[in-house]
Amino acid sequence: MRKFTLLLSALLFSFITWGQKITVHEQSEDLGKGKNNALVVTIYGADESDVEKAWKSLMKDYGAKVSTSKGIMFAQNATIKTMGDKPIDIYARFDVKKDEIELVVSFDLGGAFLSATQHPDKYKIAEKIMHDFAVSTTADAITEKQKIQQKSLDKLTSQQKDLEKDNKNLNSEIDDYQSRIKKDQDAIIKNKDAQAKKQTEISNQQKVVDDLAKQAKEVK
């Protein structure tokens, strides 16, 4: 029980952490093309494989050819219509930390890497893409954990119902036993009364027998 309580507390703490606002920020990173500007966002509670799969799917939605090498996922010739018709290359790295994954992404616009100062309009679009992705994958991770915990809750609820059913059956048995005991107690009282009456009958009958025996002896 203590182990379960500690696990539940840890999960609740994680949920509180995930409830924090997800934000995207810039920093210089090396994603295989030297140090360049990158956008960074934190995804909470998700498995690395699930995040990589989701990001790969998103890149393919943009028509990119996706490959992975040395921990860097490269999406070649992605077309994000809201950023223009010109294809761009997108580099992504997934830094796994305790209970979270830091998604680091560089957008190669062709001759320059996306930054808030040089490309403010396109930056807002990329920022929203990464924010929405982080929110979606974090929410999916929480939902999956919720499903697991729901199964545990359902199991505990079922066990509680079984205990309540057992309790009801036991109380029903007690009621039956008490009813039988009451009937037996009443029967015992009636039996005692019947024994007393029968003893009186026996005494009276014995007197009759004794009197006849006496009479028989007195015959001359």
Could you please describe the fold and organization of this structure?
The protein is rod-shaped and about 155 Å long. It is built from three helices and six strands; from the N terminus they run αββαββββα. It is α+β, with helices and mostly antiparallel strands and 220 residues long. The chain has a domain at 15-141: Alpha-D-Glucose-1,6-Bisphosphate, Chain A, domain 4, CATH 3.30.530. It starts with a helix and ends with a helix.
How is the secondary structure organized here?
Blueprint: H1 2-18, E1 24-30, E2 35-44, H2 48-61, E3 65-69, E4 72-78, E5 88-97, E6 100-108, H3 120-218
Antiparallel strand pairs: 1-2, 2-6, 3-4, 4-5, 5-6
Q: Name the helix and strand elements from N-terminus to C-terminus, one letter apiece.
A: HEEHEEEEH
- How are strands sequenced across the largest beta sheet? 1-2-6-5-4-3
- Give unreliable regions as ranges: 1-18
What's the total number of strands?
Answer: 6
Give a concise summary.
59% of the residues lie in helices and 22% in strands. The chain is built from three helices and six strands. The radius of gyration is 43 Å and the shape is rod-shaped.
